[in-house]
């Protein structure tokens, strides 16, 4: 169900890249690094929405998006990647986050 690698270690890479972006004077983040960060971030957001949909369907509390909310706020506040986020369909993923009532696939 969780796919290869299972445990979600991608969050560590995402956090490291975000931490690197906090100090832009020390290290300039390349376009490729920004794209990789954005893709991983959007994947995690999309996965959280899908997990919440499955949990709702099973009658369980859907808290995956809440668990990732702080990361979402920090990431969306990074001016250096905002255009990259939009290029990689940020709005489509945010739409899934804001539609808690509809089960996945409807």
Automatic annotation (TrEMBL):
GO cellular component terms, A-Z: nucleus
Biased composition (Gly residues): 1-12
InterPro entries given in the database record: RNAPII_TF_IWS1 (IPR051037), TFIIS/LEDGF_dom_sf (IPR035441)
Any one GO BP annotation for this protein: poly(A)+ mRNA export from nucleus
Region Disordered, residue ranges: 1-31
Record protein name field: Uncharacterized protein
Organism annotation: Heterosigma akashiwo (Chromophytic alga)
């Amino acid at each position: 169900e969780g796919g290869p690698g299972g445990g979600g270690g991608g969050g560590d890479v995402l956090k490291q890249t975000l931490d690197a972006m906090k100090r832009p004077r020390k290290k300039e983040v390349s376009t490729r690094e920004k794209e990789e960060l954005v893709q991983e971030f959007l994947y995690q957001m999309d996965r959280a929405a899908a997990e919440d949909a499955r949990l709702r369907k099973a009658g369980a509390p859907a808290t995956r998006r809440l668990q990732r909310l702080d990361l979402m706020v920090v990431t969306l506040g990074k001016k250096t990647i905002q255009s990259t986020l939009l290029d990689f369909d940020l709005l489509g993923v945010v739409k899934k986050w804001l539609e808690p009532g509809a089960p996945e696939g409807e």
